[in-house]
Design brief:
Keywords: Membrane, Transmembrane, Transmembrane helix. Helix 6 packs parallel to helix 7 and helix 9 runs antiparallel to helix 10. With 613 residues, the chain is an alpha/beta fold. The chain contains 15 helices and 26 strands. The protein is globular, with a radius of gyration of 25 Å.
């Protein structure tokens, strides 16, 4: 039950619970109403706590997908193709059958990427939405991270554009009906240069609507300005099919600072030139002096936006470039929004291990990316690089994430990274299976898949702005071939998959079945197994153990050498309740191993085992 108590603010109506500067109403009826429901909220709190506890009995498994690509059955794939040529997936394409297929992977959260309305060249003027200027849009479909309306969803994703929000709301209901949670992006650091909200609530103001544009910085401004200068479209881009609609001009006077902290009217082509930086009260050009009291207008607007989507049924937010926004904002806003729904989760995209703990403790994030550390180290091992060393795995959990490994999200693919099966990464999805086993078992925090990863999507092709960069484009209208085989024209039964692709998906299913329900993974301790037998710098073993379960995880990244070792089990772990018989959980194969203080292991190149003992 959500109770709205509204106070009129500069930027529109706000939840009193999310604004400590909101004037208290003296209306006694309102006070009486609040008191009347107080007891009801208290009575519900114990139920809510039980629900939260219930969710904690499984590891969080996230499935990331772009609706624009996920449901697209069109196979034309013309470079820089229009939506009419290449097609676009819709919210409605994510059917109950599709969600069942996702659930087969033991997923419990779906991250719908690119839901919010973002800058695009596709014309929806008939619905009151103008196309954006081609000089400040990346690709024809546009970047999902150049938001042009925080209160709207992307019209590309709707069958009936007029009812696009209802179609999104129906997707949320379908997802929840399958006992899956919904994540969406929150992009707090920057917005599209063309930002204008057509769908904002009554009495809400757009970013910058009340700015004093004569000042480079003001604590009251939403943007940073370069007074007296015009924005200059960056040069250096190659000629493309979009060049015919680009005139190297964009009307922005005075120029605003660019999203990646470029305080110049002339950003470069490799800057985030399509975005403008939001002002959270930090004067970057004066030694990053902070102005957080009174609360900056951007903070209040963003709190409203998060509350708006929470009330739509969203269960959590993946926060883009979280480190580019002050910790003080997160410290304030996350508890505020959790007053609306205490079960919300906030995931921060973070790349600086030195401040991980600060963003978790002070910033109040539930989870952070484990990219710089575990992902980077595993990628080297998967690629068989000369400097690859399993010491990177050890460093990730014993040093970088020591004490908070259960709050790090592990992954091998997402929309920013190269596809495993691409020529630039590994060239074969199977080469990453030991890394996936380590990612899923090393901690009790979330593990994430990117749609198509489970069937070996290679990300081939020069799609448009994305180029042939070993990734699946986020900027263009495109079909995703390997994923489309599993989709099978909307049947979502995988009948077009090859035998190897079916085996790969089955491997992911089994691995995540094991880890998502394993007490040792979710609640257990970790013990690093000392090198034994012929173990080298491309072989790693550790034990996860709790009062209910013991698991030996062994990963062999070596391309040629079989791992042969006798793994000694310490006394303190032997005392823990054991299983009989000893079983390789990835194959459900019973191992003929006599009871004792050690486990003999023989592991072929590029393989892994999760042994319950």
């Amino acid at each position: 039950m959500i109770v709205e108590v509204k106070c009129e603010m500069e930027n529109g109506w706000r939840f009193a619970s999310t604004d400590r500067h909101c004037e208290e109403r003296s209306n006694l009826n309102a006070v009486a109403y609040i008191l009347a429901i107080f007891c009801l909220l208290i009575s519900l709190s114990s139920f809510a706590q039980k629900q939260r506890t219930k969710m904690n009995d499984k590891q969080i498994v996230i499935y990331q997908l772009l609706p624009r690509l996920f449901g697209n059955k069109n196979t034309t794939n013309a470079p820089y193709g229009t939506i009419e040529q290449n097609g676009s997936g819709k919210f409605n394409d994510i059917t109950e059958k599709a969600l069942d297929g996702i659930k087969e992977l033991h997923v419990n959260y779906v991250w719908y990427t690119g839901v919010l309305a973002h800058a695009s060249l596709t014309d929806y003027a008939a619905y009151g939405i103008k196309p954006d200027d081609a000089d400040v849009v990346k690709g024809r479909a546009g970047s999902p991270y150049a938001i042009r309306d925080y209160y709207d969803v992307d019209p590309d994703l709707a069958v009936d554009v007029k009812n696009r929000m209802k179609e999104f709301e129906a997707l949320v209901k379908r997802t929840h009906a399958k006992n899956l949670k919904v994540l969406i992006d929150f992009v707090p650091n920057h917005v599209a240069r063309s930002y204008h909200s057509y769908a904002k609530p009554k009495n809400a103001f757009d970013f910058g609507a009340k700015d004093d544009v004569s000042k480079a910085f003001s604590p009251k401004n939403d943007f940073y300005y370069i007074p007296g200068q015009h924005f200059v479209v960056p040069a250096g881009g190659q000629k493309t099919p979009l060049s015919t609609i680009q005139d190297d001009q964009f009307n922005e006077t005075p120029a605003k600072a660019t999203g990646n902290n470029v305080f110049s009217a002339t950003p470069k082509y490799d800057d985030w030139y399509e975005t403008i930086k939001l002002n959270y009260g930090v004067d970057y050009q004066s030694g990053e002096k902070q102005y957080f009291d009174p609360i900056p207008p951007v903070w209040l607007k963003m709190c409203d936006i998060l509350t708006y989507w929470t009330n739509k049924g969203v269960d959590g937010f993946r926060c883009d470039m979280a480190e580019m926004v002050p910790i003080a904002f997160w410290n304030w806003v996350i508890p505020q929004v959790k007053k609306v729904n205490p079960d919300l989760i906030f995931i921060g995209e973070a790349y600086n291990p030195k401040v991980y703990k600060q963003y978790l403790d002070e910033g109040k994030f539930d989870y952070l990316y484990d990219k710089v550390g575990l992902y980077d180290g595993l990628k080297k091992l998967v690629r068989n690089e000369p400097t690859a060393d399993v010491a990177a795995i050890k460093h990730a959990w014993q040093v970088e994430c020591a004490g908070f490994g259960n709050r790090m999200l592990r992954f091998l693919e997402n929309h920013d990274e190269e596809r495993i099966a691409s020529a630039g990464f590994a060239g074969s999805a199977e080469l990453a299976l030991p890394a996936m086993v380590v990612s899923a078992t090393l901690g009790s925090g979330p593990v994430m898949l990117y749609f198509g990863q489970e069937v070996g999507e290679p990300g081939k092709g020069r799609e448009g702005f994305g180029g042939d960069d070993n990734r699946t484009t986020i900027f263009d209208y495109w079909g995703v071939p390997s994923h489309q085989k599993w989709m099978n024209n909307g049947a979502f039964d995988g009948k077009q998959l090859t035998e190897n692709e079916q085996k790969l998906r089955a491997y992911y299913q089994q691995l995540l079945k094991v880890t998502s329900t394993s007490d040792a993974v979710i609640n257990g301790e970790i013990y690093e197994v000392p090198a034994a037998g012929n173990m080298n710098k491309r072989m790693y073993a550790f034990i996860r153990y709790s009062g209910k379960q013991r698991l030996l995880v062994v990963a062999n990244f070596d391309r040629t050498q079989t791992l042969t070792a006798n793994i000694e089990i310490p006394d303190q772990i032997l005392k823990v309740k054991h299983s009989s018989p000893v079983t390789d959980l990835l194959t459900d194969r019973k191992l003929n191993i006599p009871a004792g203080t050690s486990i003999p292991v023989t592991l072929t190149p590029v393989s892994a085992q999760v042994i319950e003992f």
